[in-house]
Amino acid sequence: MNKRSATLMTGPARTPVRRSHRPPGREWRALGWLLRHPLFLLHPALAVTLLVLVGPVATLAGYSVLAVLVVGWWRGHPASFDRHIGPHVRATWRRWTTYRGRRWASLLSDCGLTREHRHNGETLVPRVMRVRSSTPTIDTLLVRMVRGQDLTHWQEHAPVLAEALIAHRVAVSRARPGVVALVVERELPFDRVIPAPDIPASADEVDLSALEIGDNEHGEAFVISIVRGHRVVIGNTGSGKGSVMWGTLRACGPCIREGVVRVHMIDLKGGVETEQGAPLFTRYATTPEDALALLTDFRDAMKARQEWMRDNGLRSCTPSVETPVEMLMVDEMAMLTAYADRQITREALRLLAEIMTQGRASLFTVQGYLQEPTKDVLDVRELFTQRICLAVTAASHVDMALGDGARERGALADEIPCDARHAGIGFVIDAGSRLPIRFRAAYVSDEDIAELVARCTPRDADVIDLYPDNDGDQDGNGSVWGAS
């Protein structure tokens, strides 16, 4: 019997039975759609139930009050509305206006992404399973492909699909067997360079848990924290890592001047990019050997403060002149953790792991900057509590930097052009919603760094020894480790 024959053998005599090529009735397909979208019936059912139970006047009043509350929330507190409600409203609106029905089928047909059933001539349209709209400029779709399609087919048609959607870019990746994830970037939210933020007038105006270093795509200030955690910034050369670093120092400048924050800098690129700010640093290292010595002293100072905290019955410290934030900044971290002498890298990784697992309560924090986020380069990657991803070269680097599924949810950091026009643009994961938020770090020029040094170089002050049992080793700038 021909293997291509669409027959089944049934019964004792193995009588051939031909398969029917008629598609299921529209009523059954409509029922299946309703089962997949139960909320479509829930809202009308709720309205009818309220009409029967409380009457039309009370029902209309209830819906009116609800509408007023939603509009009031939207107008009165945009930040919380955009975080909790905005993504759901946008996703629902765009699903019904763009990603379903005849409009969606016609769009895919024009782009060559539909197929014709070879027996009954029915047009098979890939079905949108889920729509996310985590930001105003990015939609993420999960689409079930029809038979005869694969990931390569969709990737080849992505440019055409982007033009049809009037989108800036469409990225395609494989979500699971038979399902592709489409990231539709509708527009670029940053069309200009953001100037460096002003240096606060005094330390009292600085919130070390919310330092403003740029803007996010919602039009709000993009803030970072240098207390109670550690941060890593990942990006190619020219992606804007320097803007994040110097923007952080400008935002906390008065605290550096007053001794509330002390900066310990490791720059293994010979100090070329950080030498201008050297007066701001309590410790400064530009060679692997000096960097290892700095790390060792930094760890010992952390241990000394922990001992002092135990003696005084403290579970955590508050930033002050007596207990300053000790901030270790490592520029080009891979030179310390992967590319230096093997003995140095092994000891550096051990010290970094010890500091990052124990330094939170005692206000010892690590801020790392590197280009490649692989485990081979940064074995302690998972210990960083906040991760920032600027422009990178590979799609896999996005998930390595921000966590599994970050790119699928819209963090297209590998699609950011690495040029001056796009420097400082990147993604960070929102702590509340776990959705990627795009931001742009403010550009900090050489003149801005010179202003920072002139205004915020630490003042000469008497040394207060908080740890009388410590040996009081002096560092290279004449201050005592573990004291302020």
Automatic annotation (TrEMBL):
Key word ATP-binding present: yes
Key words, A-Z: ATP-binding, Nucleotide-binding
Keyword Phosphoprotein: no
Signal sequence, start to end: none
UniProt GO molecular function: ATP binding; DNA binding
Segments forming domain FtsK: 228-358
A Pfam family assignment: FtsK_SpoIIIE
Protein name: S-DNA-T family DNA segregation ATPase FtsK/SpoIIIE
Organism per entry: Pseudonocardia endophytica
Lineage: Bacteria, Bacillati, Actinomycetota, Actinomycetes, Pseudonocardiales
